[in-house]
Amino acid sequence: MCIDKDQWLGTLTGLKCGLLLSPLPVNNYLLNHYPYRKLIVPFGTVQSKENTYTSHQITTIIRPTNTSFSCQYFVFILNDRLKILQSTDSPTGWLYLALLHAMTSHPLPDEYTGMTGMERAFQLLNSAGSYSDQPFDKLSLHILSQIASISPKVNYYPEKTTYMEQVDWSSNGLPYSMQHFGYYFIAKKRIESSQLFNFMYPSISLNKMPELFEGKIYNEILLAKLYWDYRDSYNPTARLSVEMETDILPTTSTKLYCSSSEYCSHVTNYNAVCLVDDLYNNGYVDLRDCSKQHWLPLSQWLTDENNLKNIWIGLLKMVDCIKTETGEKHMDNVKRFESLLDFLHYISDKRKINPFYLQMLKTALKVSSISLRSVEFPAFESYEHIEKTDIDDLFASFLTDHTSSQRRQITAEIRHSFECGARFQDDDYLLTNDEIIEINAQLRSRRANIKLRAFLQVIQRLICSVSIEQFHAQVPYYPQKFAREIGKNHHEIRIKPIERPIDPILLRAAENKFHDYNSEDLNQTIFVRRSDQKNEFPQEIFSSITKQNNDLSEIMNYFKNQLSQSWKKFLSDNEYEEGYCSLKKIIEILHSYRKESVCFWNELLSSIKLSNDQLLETGLILRMTPTTLIPLLQQKDSSRSLLTEDQCTILGGIIVNWTLEQQIERILYFAIHKKWEDFKKEISHTPHSIWKPSEHISWLILELEMNITIREIQIEVAQHMIQSNINTDDSTIRLF
Fold it and tell me: Domain residues of the chain, as ranges?
């Protein structure tokens, strides 16, 4: 390896501590993908600060001086095929790599990975590489504490209330949108999971949970709430797992909404009541003329001022107006008024409305013999004490200070004015002006009450003289039902289905690779005649024995003949030696695979982007990168799969090609470095010769991620163990 002249990675932008190494060319050969480039990064406290000249923060690493970690380094490999950095140290290396991605993150995707640093950090933290089968050591705990501290500190203000949410965003140059509320939860979860193994490792279990996670710095309840508030703004990759989201859901019992009971009764035949004895029996009434009022919105009829006592006469006047209309307008208004009556009937129980009054209105509308043209409607104004229609109670309050003769004179004059409908004048000047005004007001009120009651009695006789219309059909009532939304279904934006078919030629080629056994064999052995063969049997090995004349001559001759025959057979078997394809031929095969893989990949992306271009540009759906698309092949629920069957086939063909490319690159590496034993071992294996990649996707992904070829004997052992111990079809055993 050598120091690369170009230290630009295309990711971890702004990181000032690190050294990029590239492989040296050997014998004028330089492979593009293997061996991998490597990045060396020192361990320390990762800090960032705002760069005033660019829109990206500067990230530095502060090395510890007095600890055992001062000489700690991490090595990461650059997988140019998957476009990711991978750690050679698990899980500590994976955690540190996640920290570096998180601290160098920007709202725009990285050039190399195709995703933001925050998305890659969550991808790493959610991967199996970040899990541990033993308690984390001090180094890993230190890294996880740094990851958790990226989440802003939150609390309520004042602390013991919930009036105000206080979020202390870090001013370290990291954009606020990159200070994810979930870092704290995922770091704490990783530590808790590792501490389950404390009983197995008593020496390591002495490392306690960092103070950061004791709940004194972070209000976890508020932090969980804010995570859910901001969750929909995160790319699906930068979210907690479904299990973790379920864990941080509010545990307090929330009373779900329950709709009130059904408003309207199923009874349609109501008892008759008298207007003047019930609805307009007494009290105050403010008659409202709603004859010209539009029936919508219906909410206007729910206000207190529009109670039935105030609007019933106005609705009756609306009926009179409708009946005088003709043509289509008449039919439309009839339907509208009936709909209004149905609504009032529907809410009659809640509004304490006697439905019989609504039936009277419906009867006045439907029966043509009922005419209101000859009936004078009362004034639409306010009425007080509508039960008072005489003046007997007026005299007591005005005649207390007068003589009996004066009282008789005033009473007679008031009665005369009331009966004649005239204004009371007090010609004898026995009363004050205020008393005269009050008496005239009371006279007007009593006369209005008489007219109102007379009108109501006439209307009662008119309507009740015919058969009352019934509400023959009830308004259907469907109680509302509500359920708590499941976290995994919340605000899920789906990839739109493909609108054009996949190229049939490419699809057929991918099917042959993904759904069939591999028939291509790089081990095309060529036999070459040896030039240094010695055909004569070395008789001299028996020379000393043949001169002796003893009884063992027969035995000696027997072995001599046997050895001579074996020698001849040995010479015939070794007359040729094995030869393999030239490097030029192998490189040609590698280039053909790479070209086909590029065609597959471009076709896959085109089919997805065609209907989802805007969603991809805004980052609302998964990034179109290998590490985000490959896991989609393992989705068991086809109904929720983001890819179509043809797209999965193309993706499967890509992975198969990539595994074959990796094997050829290893073969070339051994050949270039003249490691012929390793070369023969590698080229002698034919990938996927006895198993179909589509039936063992996890094995295929394992080959790609680990850059290995699963041997036939390993498959046979795995299948034997699966068949004998496990009944499921999708089980995988790792033998590496």
Answer: 2-247, 255-483, 504-522+581-725, 525-579
